């Protein structure tokens, strides 16, 4: 074994050991984009590994030149085989990282704080982690206060974080019971509601969306101040959950123009 190979093997072994120590409560950032966003939005990254560090730095130079220096200092190169042992489905960019989960109380405080300058998106018992991640990404992009899910899915599940491209760190994300939702007028999105174009969505609104299978639950419907419909041609039953969130946030207004 030459010196370079030995160094790489030592670094890999050390990385794996630190990974195992950090793992129990850490968030898995799967892929370059998740790591990029997490770093930009202040995540405390315990460990970042790549199977080809030079390739990742080249990607950063292309897509995120603000992070090239930080990534050069942080990324530990490990053999592709070791990365496959650490991550169930290695991202095409060959990058993975572990970051500290934000404190739950901090997230709840951010969601409950008034006056609120942008809506909270509520996903009522979502079934698809890809949709949850896509909605977190929308909430981050639109500058929404946060995303609350009800039901049994964990919105911080690695598949949701992957679909959210690491933007869970750019907004507040928490799971809560329906009777523990943050304060604010509750606008439930449902095809039976009044046309969204006839009303303005206030900044302090909770914008609630139903599950992919069953729509808005009776419990949430009973709590809603307004039922609101997105325009849709007759005979089309519904839109996809994440696209519905996109339309509603766009109708609310989004971040101030630069
Ligand atoms: C895939 S849809 C749910 C379809 C479900 N089978 C149902 O019966 O409502 C997921 C969620 O997206 C929102 N949504 C979809 N299309 C909508 C529309 N035209 N108007 C308002 N909300 C809509 C609703 O919140 C809905 O519960």
Describe the structure.
With 258 residues, the chain is α/β, with parallel strands linked by helices. The protein has two domains: 98 residues, 60s Ribosomal Protein L30, Chain: A; 149 residues, SPOUT methyltransferase, trefoil knot domain (Alpha/beta knot), CATH 3.40.1280. 39% of the residues lie in helices and 19% in strands. The chain is built from ten helices and ten strands. It has a six-stranded parallel sheet. It has a four-stranded mixed sheet with strand order 1-4-2-3. It starts with a helix and ends in a 6-residue tail after the last helix. The mean pLDDT is 92. It binds S-adenosylmethionine (SAM). The site of S-adenosylmethionine (SAM) has 16 residues, from β8 and α10. S-adenosylmethionine (SAM) binds next to β8 and α10.
Strand content: 15-25%
The helix-strand sequence is HEHEHHEHEHEHEHEEEHEH
Structure class: alpha/beta
Structurally, the number of domains stands at 2
For the biggest β-sheet, the strand order reads: 7-6-5-9-8-10
Oligomer state of the chains in this structure = single chain
Compute the separation of the termini in Å: 56 Å
Spatial extent as radius of gyration: 20 Å
**According to CATH, what is the topology of the largest domain?**
Alpha/beta knot
Largest sheet: 6 strands, parallel
Per DSSP E runs of 2 or more residues, the count of β-strands stands at 10
Compounds present?
S-adenosylmethionine
GO molecular function: methyltransferase activity
Domain RNA 2-O ribose methyltransferase substrate binding: 28-105
Family: Belongs to the class IV-like SAM-binding methyltransferase superfamily. RNA methyltransferase TrmH family.
Protein name: TrmH family RNA methyltransferase
